[in-house]
Amino acid sequence: MIVLKKLKDAERDRNPIYGVIRGTAENHGGRANTLTSPNPKAQAELLIKAYKKAGVNPRTVTYIEAHGTGTELGDPIEINGLKAAFKELYDTEGDSGIEDHRCGLGSVKSNIGHLELAAGISGIIKILMQMKHKTLVKSLHTETLNPYLQLKDSPFYIVQNTEDWKAVQDKQGRELPRRAGVSSFGIGGVNAHIVIEEYIPKEDEPSECNPTPREPSIVVLSAKNEKSLREQVEQLLMFIRMRKIDEKDLSRIAYTLQVGRNSMEERLALIVGSISKLVEKLDDFLQGRSVAEHSYRGKANRNNETLTLISADEDMALAIDSWIVKRKYARLAEIWVKGLHIDWNKLYGDAAPRRISLPTYPFAKERYWIPEYLHADGGNNNVLPARDKEASDSSTEQRTRTTCLLAKSWVPCPSVSKTKSHRIVAILTHPETEALAERVAEHFPQHQIIHAQQVEHFSDWDWKSFDGVVDLAGCGTSGYEMRSCIEWLQSLIEHGHKEGLMLLGVTRGLESYLNPGAINLTGAARAGLYRMLQSEYGHLRSRHMDADHSIVDDGVLAQQIADEYFADSEEAEVCYRNGMRFRCC
């Protein structure tokens, strides 16, 4: 698995960066001889497009991870496409001052086979690992090459032996980033290529926090159970012993474990001032030696009501902040192993260490296979006797079947108001709910009533001006659905504010709970949308509110809707009955 992130965001967050995508391209070869027969012309056009988009000199590309299925027909066609594309790219680029350019070819399929939909991503991971280790690994089964591969008089060669991946130098003798391409061709003529560049950290990268001998680091480890915690300790100890770890890596190890891992039940915290001391304390834990000074072990109980109360206490939060400022590491370690949350970033301010790659979580290797059926004797008991044709159906054992029906439950849930919005709240309406929209707007100092016909023309909206949405389309009785608002909501979520966005969809009498009248299905098609959006998008809150159908005064109903919009809660589904608020559970 890989994680894609904008380069500037990854640098800001000090993430480990394995490579930079310089350009991508895809096309379709159209009609060919057969369904699986490649089109060399289309492949060449794809490569030219990819490298022009990437904006890199083709002579700086020193490795291509080929599609390389190992077929007698496909591989030569792919090579011919590469040769044709790079010849045109060379001619376009002209003399670049880079001499003796060579470009290695390989395919991970020789190692792991053809992974179908995962074939392309496998090639990307291979290139990223080669960049990390500055090594080109050999492709297996290449001792004897396909005689139809015509590589003579071309920059390409098959990587038949593992070798150092040397960086290309420019005219001034400066090393350039290593660059590579990955090809992946799908059945039926779909072609794709990606250009990847080695990441070179900037010289002006913000300084890291490097603790002095007087300022130790807090190394934290946690797991679901004690066995997994021991495995984590073993992994970290082996990682340190097998890698070239120096003292500046101590703060990086500590920071990565603090902010890059979830805190689980079984916890261990070690306060250390050097790598050697960390190794010593990790070994002490594994050997079962008595807990040494500055070593803390505990178990966080998520259902501990006392812990929950302490965590929510403002005075405790202030105390933790004070300990961080005063560098009272022992106090911080002690409360963390007991289950309290600590914002570790406050320890570092703007000079946080860089995250590094550390061993991942040792997941439990549990088997869930159906056990094999064991026979009492060695005979073949899998063969069932033929049914007696004369047997009456009435003699067959009657089986009892049970029908299980699931129903919603509603519990009272008073709301707590939050600070009101300073940005515009959009009120979606249609002709049947315009009067209600006017009354709702009275509760929002900044508002914009948006009618059905306006929703259909929204390309030039100022999305960041909106704080949220109140959708009243479900408050009518005619069944009008205002379907075009789905695209409007999609654009708001994509281009609007990334913090504090609130979406409230309102219906009137949709839920049967304490509703003696007929169910009003207006708005039902979108009620589920508002219930799930906050689960899909972490930066917003969304809710479906079913208003009391018995309310006839638009002013009273508008007040109820405004109160719900400003409610400080995470419920995805609420309803109002006889003036009381209920949540679904």
UniProtKB/TrEMBL annotation:
Q: Which UniProt keywords apply?
A: Ligase, Phosphopantetheine, Phosphoprotein, Repeat
Organism, by scientific name, is: Paenibacillus pini JCM 16418
The reply to whether S-adenosyl-L-methionine figures as a keyword in the UniProt entry is no
- Pfam families to which the protein is assigned, alphabetical: Ketoacyl-synt_C, RhiE-like_linker
The top of its lineage is:
Bacteria, Bacillati, Bacillota, Bacilli, Bacillales
Entries under Gene3D superfamilies matching the protein: 3.30.70.3290, 3.40.47.10, NAD(P)-binding Rossmann-like Domain
Ketosynthase family 3 (KS3) domain span = 1-198
Question: Molecular function (GO) terms listed?
Answer: fatty acid synthase activity; ligase activity
The superkingdom listed in its UniProt entry is: Bacteria
What name appears for this protein in its UniProt entry?
Long-chain-fatty-acid-CoA ligase
* Coiled coil start-end: none
Give the CC-aspect GO terms.
Answer: cytoplasm; plasma membrane
The record's listing under SMART domains reads: PKS_KS
Q: Which GO terms describe its biological process?
A: DIM/DIP cell wall layer assembly; fatty acid biosynthetic process
